[in-house]
């Protein structure tokens, strides 16, 4: 009798929920406005759900197809959730340039179990406080002091590549991951990790597991709640284990730094990001141990995974464009005197052709291909549609960068797109490798310096030859633009 009563209660709740959702979809202002926007037809109640339940590889292709079909935007919806997908710079500007739409969309809620509400996922006063604390860590006077760290790490990367390039193509993702992870630990966290590849591999594998789980849950609403359903699944258990690995790694970083911490507000001291956080806590700012852990987790992830992806695709493109590769080498020789010289901060700033090449690589392969915001008020798009308040505005940077109106022959690798005379009149919201507006990437200059330092070391020692062609690379829907099967490059030692 008790079991029957429980079952009956469950049925009543389920039916009531379906009726509530049906009413919202048919009579609410939100869905009345959303229905007017073009998009794939959906089914009652579940909307477009079935269309997106696919493998990460298929999901990536589905998004590309729908964005071409419904340009400049299309809607998607399920249950009481709805949003629009944008790739026109005028629409993107409406969202990113306004401080009213600073809250990340519900997709980012899945990150809370790992990153908490750090700089990437926080909103309002908390975000403003954290941004204010962290901004000095990326002042150019601090960045100059990071260049020797980048150079030292890049030299170790070269030695690792020499060890691996015994005639076989090298999947570059592994060694580059180790380089970027050790670099972010020493620069932003102020500690030297040991060079154990196992630590880096375990950390990266945990990120892969978490990223797959995030993508899997994104199109399965019944897994949105951690405590009710997701944690009961086998994927939920693997995800909790991966989060523990990630937290153990970052807590070790914090513990190591705290052992030797002195107030980093003292003059003439290199201020690692972690030092600033510890100092802020010491001086009574609104941040505690949990807040410090949130930011360390955030920067350990964002500071290494996005840079790993960027370097990976840079090597792919240069291996497939030997003429451009030679031009970069020639510029290095002209600026450094010899291409094998260790570059200074000033040297890296002078490598203008290299910088244009890096910008073009980030156009074709933006490390973060997708960002999203929750709209805090209605917006009217360039095509005249009203997107309602509380909708998710999903900005597809990968496709935005391929808009032929702004980038003719968009699949062509052409660094001259970023010559000053070619870029000066370009729409300010059509090229967003580091996002834009108030929530743009705080570490973009840090990233460009690290990319240049790594490339100087690699091209100073190797000629890159293509093992994989661009068309061979299979990409998946994930937190970053991750290649499904890695990227292979042949490294031939320079004479």
TrEMBL record:
Give the membrane topology.
Peripheral membrane protein
Binding, heme? 441
* Highest taxon of the lineage: Eukaryota
UniProt cofactor(s): heme
Instruction: Name the GO cellular-component terms.
Output: endoplasmic reticulum membrane
- State which residue ranges cross the membrane: 6-24
Which GO molecular function terms does the record list? Answer: heme binding; iron ion binding; monooxygenase activity; oxidoreductase activity, acting on paired donors, with incorporation or reduction of molecular oxygen
The entry's localization annotation reads:
Endoplasmic reticulum membrane; Microsome membrane
Print the keywords alphabetically: Endoplasmic reticulum, Heme, Iron, Membrane, Metal-binding, Microsome, Monooxygenase, Oxidoreductase, Transmembrane, Transmembrane helix
Q: Does Membrane count among this protein's keywords?
A: yes
Q: What does this protein do?
A: May be involved in the metabolism of insect hormones and in the breakdown of synthetic insecticides.
Give the similarity note: Belongs to the cytochrome P450 family.
The protein in question is named Cytochrome P450 monooxygenase CYP4Q32
Q: What is the lineage of its organism?
A: Eukaryota, Metazoa, Ecdysozoa, Arthropoda, Hexapoda
């Amino acid at each position: 009798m008790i079991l029957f009563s429980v079952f009956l209660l469950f049925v009543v709740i389920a039916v009531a929920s379906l009726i509530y959702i049906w009413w919202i979809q048919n009579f609410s202002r939100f869905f009345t406005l959303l229905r007017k926007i073009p998009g794939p037809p959906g089914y009652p109640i579940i909307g477009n759900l079935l269309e997106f339940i696919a493998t990460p590889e298929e999901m990536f292709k589905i998004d590309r197809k729908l964005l071409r079909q419904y340009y400049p935007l299309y809607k998607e919806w399920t249950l009481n959730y709805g949003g629009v997908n944008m790739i026109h710079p005028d629409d993107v500007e409406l969202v990113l340039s306004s401080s009213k739409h600073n809250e990340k969309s519900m997709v980012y809620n899945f990150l809370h179990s790992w990153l908490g509400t750090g700089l990437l996922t926080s909103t309002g006063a908390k975000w403003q406080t954290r941004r204010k604390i962290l901004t000095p860590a990326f002042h150019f006077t601090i960045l100059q002091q990071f260049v020797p760290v980048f150079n030292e790490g890049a030299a170790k990367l070269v030695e690792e590549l020499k060890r691996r390039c015994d005639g076989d193509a090298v999947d570059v993702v592994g060694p580059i991951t180790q380089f970027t992870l050790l670099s972010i630990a020493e620069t932003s966290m102020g500690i030297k990790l040991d060079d154990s590849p196992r630590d880096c591999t375990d950390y990266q594998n945990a990120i892969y597991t978490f990223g797959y789980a995030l993508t899997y849950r994104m199109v399965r609403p019944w897994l949105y709640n951690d405590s009710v359903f997701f944690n009961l699944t086998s994927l939920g258990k693997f995800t909790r284990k991966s989060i523990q690995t990630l937290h153990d790694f970052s807590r070790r970083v914090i513990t190591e730094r705290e052992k030797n911490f002195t107030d980093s507000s003292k003059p003439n001291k290199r201020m690692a990001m972690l030092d600033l956080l510890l100092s802020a806590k010491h001086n009574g700012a609104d941040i505690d141990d949990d807040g410090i852990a949130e930011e360390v987790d955030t920067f350990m992830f964002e500071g290494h995974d996005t840079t790993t992806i960027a370097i990976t695709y840079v090597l792919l493109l240069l291996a497939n464009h030997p003429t451009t590769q030679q031009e970069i080498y020639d510029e290095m020789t002209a600026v450094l005197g010899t291409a094998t010289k260790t570059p200074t901060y000033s040297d890296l700033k002078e490598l203008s052709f290299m910088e244009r090449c890096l910008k073009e690589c980030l156009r074709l392969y933006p490390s973060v291909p997708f960002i999203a915001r929750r709209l805090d008020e209605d917006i009217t798009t360039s095509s005249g549609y009203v997107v309602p308040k509380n909708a998710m505005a999903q900005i597809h940077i990968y496709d935005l960068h391929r808009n032929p109106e702004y980038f003719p022959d968009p699949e062509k690798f052409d660094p001259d797109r970023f010559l000053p005379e070619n870029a000066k009149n370009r729409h300010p919201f059509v090229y967003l490798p580091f996002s834009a507006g108030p929530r743009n990437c705080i570490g973009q200059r840090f990233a460009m310096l690290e990319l240049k330092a790594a490339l100087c070391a690699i091209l100073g020692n190797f000629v890159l030859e293509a093992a994989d062609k661009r068309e061979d690379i299979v990409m998946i829907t994930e937190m970053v633009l991750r290649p499904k099967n890695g990227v292979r490059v042949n490294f031939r030692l320079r004479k």
